[in-house]
Amino acid sequence: MRCWKLAKNPRTSSLKMNQLPTVCCRRQTSACFVRAQVTLVPSLLLKRIEAERKRDSDFLEALRSMMMKIRPSCNVDTSSETSTCS
């Protein structure tokens, strides 16, 4: 499995570097998903990130474009938080 940190943006500027969401891709299945650092992010903050992420298309666009750079054939499924890469 390979993981990448999402870059800082205005939406996440209040988060510390180690609290930024991480995107992981499993090599075997090529499935990608967003993983928040649950151990470092208080659950309340995590819920806020989740809520913002659900209505923040910029975040999803940034995620999509990042996935495209990582794996050009990535298909990020924002509804289920998983994606498939061929």
Q: What's the shape?
A: globular
* SSE ordering: EEEHHEE
Terminal CA distance? 15 Å
> Into how many domains do the coordinates divide?
1
**Quaternary state of the chains:** single chain
Number of helices in the DSSP assignment: 2
Q: How would you describe this structure to a colleague?
A:
The protein is α+β, with helices and mostly antiparallel strands and 86 residues long. The chain is built from 2 helices and 5 strands, in the order βββααββ. Strand 2 and strand 3 (31-35) form a beta hairpin. The longest helix is centred in the C-terminal third of the chain and has 14 residues, at 57-70. It is globular, with a radius of gyration of 12 Å.
Q: What attributes characterize this protein structure?
A:
86 residues, alpha+beta, 2 helices, 31% helix, globular
Task: Set down the secondary structure blueprint.
Blueprint: E1 2-5, E2 22-25, E3 31-35, H1 43-55, H2 57-70, E4 74-77, E5 82-85
Antiparallel strand pairs: 1-2, 2-3, 3-5, 4-5
